Amino acid sequence: MRKSFTALLTISVLATGVLLSGCGKSTSGTKQTATIMEQADISSFDSTMITDVGALETVNNTQEGLYRMKNSTTVEPGLATSIVKPTQNGTVYTFKLRKNLKWSNGDALTANDFVFAWRRAVTPETKAADAYRFLPIKNAQAIENGKLAPSKLGIKALNKTTVQVTLAQATPYFKYLCASVPFLPQDQKVVNKYGKAYGTTSDKTVYSGPFVVKKWTTSSSRWDLTKNPKYWDKKNVKLNKVTFLVTKSPETALSLYQSGKLDNIVLAGQQAAQEANNKGYLSYPSGETDYIAYNYRTKALRNANIRKAISLTINRKSLTKNVLKNGAKAPYGIAPEAMSKNPSNGKDFAKDASVKQSVDYNPTLAKKYWAKGMKELGMSKMTLNLVCYDVDAFKQSAEFIQSSAQKYLKGLKININVQPKVQAITTMQQKKGYDLGFTNWIASYPDLDEFFQLSTTDNVNNAGNYSSSAYDAVYKKANTTDSNNAQARYNDFKQASQILMNDQAILPVNQGQIARLNTPSLKGVNYAAAQGISLKDAYRTNK
């Protein structure tokens, strides 16, 4: 649940085949081109102002920051020469840039381009949607509140190739921020030249990444990417041209793929189940958890037995497999898979921290909890109002939950109130007018904090009004005392997860997946849930 779009969890998956280097595959005589589905129109290429998914996908192929995402939990150097180990208790990062970096127009790309872009993002007058993501940096909060000048932000250019960043406190996920769109550099000369028109056409933007954009305006339904001759790693970019085609209808996209007019598409709804045996099919975690928040302002839902009873009536495996059929999976808790691993043994956090009963299906036990809770409340009947988004998957899930809970819990009635997504989010942020709030969260970056901040006391996105001093204490410890100790921080979040799920403070419904089709002759494609398709390493074979 977010008021504006934020970047999601980055997942890297190699498409069918292996990387070009050393693979022995012949590409001679093969035209190095590709045509890719884009799901939505694009409103801007200004990396400070971007709020839409489509733009993120194109920008991450045409711009590059200090780091790039290599896979779900690993960053690799981008414009920086190496991954930096912070000093001064994890608060100071000193980045060395590659020598002789150039923008696509030939301008020198220097440390000052990062200083300019980051200051611009936190300037209140800019009204950058993702300005809050800079809050870990020293003085960002005061600048965004209008109490300090942007020049006081904790970033400076020590020389043309050295950027130094000072954080307000140690922030383990800062490395992921350095690989995200809001933290890209910008050419000050070009931004100042075009002013408010900067980023509104492909010609009013310059590029630091593998490709440059051609033939794009805000009204375009297709545009091209061509290899950037000024990119520092251009020798390893194999595709000469990529065409993005806006295809809003999933049915149309599938038809175009089947006829060879699109090489890579996103599958929607039950297409995932229908195409699962296709050679080009792949699925990867989206960094999303869909869940129901029990509103603690409703007296009956402050009863733990009632909350546990409702959860135990839901057969999540049946819901995802037989109803949704969109690739989603049964969850283990609030955090989805592929968010974090135990530093000591490599176990995935979702499974490692799971409280089985909190996501189990056990109608017999549900009835026992229900009877006990109803007796404690002195009630024989209960009516609950469930608010959910006007999105097919949410409506289908809500109806499944309604049917299951009412089937097994005597005297329960659930009314479903479907609202437009923005309205539903507002309703839940106001924390009134519902008993069950069906919402979701999509990670901005692969760090557990993304999901566990949701249940802290007074968090605006704490839709259920849950409050636990024990939970708040261990959450705070993870981000203060233990922020520089990876194992201790992991253990803190594991404890927080188990407090949350033993309380049955929420009802996890499913964890999301992204399903795609990629033509088998297009190899070396990487995927990022937030950033879409990454084509730096992609190439075409003649097979």
Automatic annotation (TrEMBL):
Residues 1-21 form the signal peptide. GO terms for cellular component: ATP-binding cassette (ABC) transporter complex; cell envelope; periplasmic space. It comes from the Bacteria. Its main location: other. GO terms for molecular function: peptide transmembrane transporter activity. Keywords: Peptide transport, Protein transport, Signal, Transport. Residues 74-460 form the Solute-binding protein family domain. InterPro entries: Peptide/Ni-bd (IPR030678), SBP_5 (IPR039424), SBP_5_dom (IPR000914). It is found in: Cell envelope. One of its GO terms (biological process) is peptide transport. The keyword Signal applies. This is ABC transporter, substrate-binding protein, family 5.
